[in-house]
Amino acid sequence: MHSKPQLLAWLTCDGVHIDPGSGKHTLLGVFSNIKARQFPVTHPFMVWFLTISDCAQGPHRIRITMGLDPTKMQQLLDRTFESQSPLQRINLINEIRNLSFPAPGDYSIMIDVDDEPILATSITVSN
Fold it and tell me: Measured between alpha carbons, how far is 113 from 96 in angstroms, rounded to an integer?
């Protein structure tokens, strides 16, 4: 039996700097909503930063989907990552480019690891 991956952190930000000497991550411009003057709007660049633990050793797959209607989610990310041990804290930096929002509202975001949902959240887009 293996434990389900645990999400320790989820942040939306403008960028992540990794110090070459220490390996520490500095998150730049953390935000939780988007304001727009008109719709549709395209956000040019953001980073979804996640820290995950309790992943069994070996390869894993993360998928992130988003939508205004939870029954019509659009896949934004599908990638693999490696875990050295279930005790490892894995920082995943996901660059999201040119994300379109057709209308204002609360956009649902779902994160799955190995087809197990680990987070359901939302981002508010308003004018």
Answer: 18
Enclosing H/E stretch for 68: none
User: Do the domain assignments include residue 1?
Assistant: no
Nearest CA to 93 out of 81, 107, 110 is that of: 81
Q: Which CATH number covers residue 34? A: 2.60.40.10
Other beta carbons within 10 angstroms of residue 70's beta carbon come to 13
pTM for this entry? 0.91
- Would you say how long the chain is, in residues? 127
Instruction: Specify whether the CB–CB gap between 13 and 58 falls below 8 A.
Output: no
Q: For the chain, what is the domain count?
A: 1
pLDDT digits (tens, 9 = 90+) for 20-71: 999 999 999 999 999 999 999 999 999 999 999 999 999 999 999 999 988 8
